[in-house]
């Protein structure tokens, strides 16, 4: 039986991040992809030229159409734009008992453009993180959510414990933003409330990492939709993103997208 997954996120017209990355990833993993768009962005590999949030009604209307007819096995959130959309998405998720929820707490784009209003960070903490089966911040996002400085792995583990206490059942703090001097490995840490697990790969020095966070959390979502465990889903996400970064496409003139075909093409390392 075909498994369905839903992304609630922003559109990246350039195709590297946001719902486009999510849907490509779902497709690669043989999961039927659906999307509820929260905002349309105008962007390319040089940066974000425009952000056009949709109304709360437009977001809820999309979710209602999906829920009434196409119930998803797993759901992820990406760019949620503002407090109002977070409150309503959280309410919808709660009232539909969507428990297979991956929250990617998207805040800023690679070039620094804001994808979530500052005041909305509290709404993420109070409303959405308690509903998350898995939350997948990078280090700067984990710092913003917890108010902690994360300068080393001990602090990263402490932040993961704080995010667990906020209600996320599993916390993945990704290592892509570890300072380069610190590590030739990119190590992601998973905490399930009892144990820490580490997933490492050799760091790939490339500017073509646009959409890595979206893609990583989309893999987890697709794998959960097919019934895999959180641990196995995170491991697959690590392999998928390592392949996608290692074998980049060379598209655009600056921060190019990752290669969503690479994992299935056997590029996983
Ligand atoms: O990777 C974060 C992200 C999420 N969603 C959208 C984006 C980006 C980064 O550019 O454009 C729509």
- CATH superfamily descriptor: Ribokinase
Shape: globular
**How many alpha or pi helices?**
9
Overall mean confidence score, pLDDT: 94
Percent in helix = 25-40%
Q: Within the largest sheet, what's the order of strands? A: 3-2-1-4-5-6
- What CATH calls the topology is UDP-N-acetylmuramoyl-L-alanine:D-glutamate ligase
Largest sheet: 6 strands, mixed
The helix/strand series, from N terminus to C terminus, equals EHEEHEHEHEHHEEEHHH
What ligand species are in this complex?
A: 3-hydroxy-5-(hydroxymethyl)-2-methylisonicotinaldehyde
Binned strand content: 15-25%
- Structural class determined from secondary elements: alpha/beta
The count of β-strands is: 9
**End-to-end C-alpha gap:** 30 Å
Query: Please, how many domains?
Result: 1
Q: Which second-level CATH architecture applies? A: 3-Layer(aba) Sandwich
Low-pLDDT segments: none
For the record, the CATH class is Alpha Beta
Q: What is the rounded Rg? A: 17 Å
């Amino acid at each position: 039986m075909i498994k369905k997954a839903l992304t609630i996120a922003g559109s990246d017209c350039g195709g590297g991040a946001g719902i486009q990355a999510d849907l490509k990833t779902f497709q690669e993993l043989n999961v039927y992809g659906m999307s509820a768009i929260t905002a349309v962005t105008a962007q390319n590999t040089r940066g974000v030229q425009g952000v056009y949030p949709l109304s709360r009604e437009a977001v809820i209307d999309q979710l209602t159409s999906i829920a009434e007819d196409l119930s998803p096995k797993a759901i992820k959130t990406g760019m949620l734009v503002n407090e109002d959309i977070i409150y309503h998405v959280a309410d919808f998720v709660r009232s539909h008992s969507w428990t297979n929820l991956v929250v990617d707490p998207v805040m800023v784009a690679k070039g620094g453009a804001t994808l979530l209003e500052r005041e909305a960070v509290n709404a993420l903490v109070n409303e959405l993180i308690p509903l998350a089966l898995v939350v997948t911040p990078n280090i700067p996002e984990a710092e913003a959510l917890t108010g902690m400085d994360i300068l080393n792995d001990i602090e990263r583990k402490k932040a993961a414990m704080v995010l667990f206490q906020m209600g996320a059942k599993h916390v993945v703090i990704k290592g892509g933003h570890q300072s380069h001097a610190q590590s030739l490995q990119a190590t992601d840490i998973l905490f399930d409330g009892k144990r820490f697990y580490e997933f490492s790969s050799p760091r790939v020095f490339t500017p073509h990492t646009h959409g890595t966070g979206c893609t990583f959390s989309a893999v987890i979502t697709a794998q959960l939709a097919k019934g895999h465990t959180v641990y196995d889903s995170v491991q697959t996400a690590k392999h998928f993103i390592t392949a996608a970064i290692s074998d980049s496409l060379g598209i655009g003139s600056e921060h190019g997208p990752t290669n969503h075909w690479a994992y299935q093409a056997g590029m996983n390392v």
